[in-house]
Design brief:
Layout lengths: L1 E2 L6 E2 L6 E5 L2 E5 L2 H9 L1 H5 L2
Antiparallel strand pairs: 1-2, 3-4
The structure holds zinc ion.
The site of zinc ion (ZN) has 8 residues, from loops.
Length: 48
């Protein structure tokens, strides 16, 4: 399972609604809306 970096939900990689590659890493999202938020400000979401 992967963690949706936007809403922190766990996402099954095979069933993810959307995914994005950023700086060599693949991120999975529960919904297309989360991917859109991520792509606007990826740094905001990958910084922990
Ligand atoms: Zn999400």
């Amino acid at each position: 399972m992967a963690i949706d970096p936007v809403c922190k939900m766990t996402v099954n990689e095979e069933k993810a609604a959307a995914k994005a590659d950023y700086k060599g890493k693949t991120y999975y999202f529960c919904a297309k809306g989360c991917k859109e938020k991520f792509e606007k400000e990826p740094e905001k979401y990958i910084r922990r």
